[in-house]
Design brief:
flat; about 5% strand; mainly alpha; 4 helices; two-stranded antiparallel ribbon
């Protein structure tokens, strides 16, 4: 038995191994990915009830207040880049939301104290 029965011969012209078959449809979602996303949303919703009455919203509010850096990183990925065009103008306006870290008062006071000692 040769390996050519299981694998097609390698096409040397285009340097790729082409396996015949239809493959996955273009709009099909991977079942494992879908299940994992659903499980994450359910877990976040259930954890949110420990912080309020609104499930997932309460969970996200809790993390927005207590873990702002990862929350705003997530928010930046969720928010779309908004492009608007005025009909009479030749100039296109692009609106962009940018998340900038803010230094807390406590860390600013620590920095000031450190510079005074030096």
């Amino acid at each position: 038995m040769t390996h050519e029965k299981f694998f097609p011969p390698w096409n040397k012209d285009d340097n790729s191994l082409r396996i015949p078959g239809r493959g996955q449809p273009k709009d099909a979602c991977n079942q494992t990915t879908k299940l994992l996303k659903d499980a994450i949303l359910i877990a976040a919703e259930q954890a949110g009830y420990h912080h309020g009455q609104e499930g997932l919203v309460s969970y996200l509010q809790y993390h927005a207040l207590n873990n702002p850096v990862p929350f705003f990183s997530l928010l930046a990925k969720v928010l779309p880049l908004q492009i608007t065009e005025e009909e009479e103008s030749d100039v296109k306006t692009i609106s962009r939301i940018e998340i900038v870290p803010v230094v807390s008062k406590k860390s600013a006071q620590d920095t000031k104290t450190f510079t005074e000692i030096s």
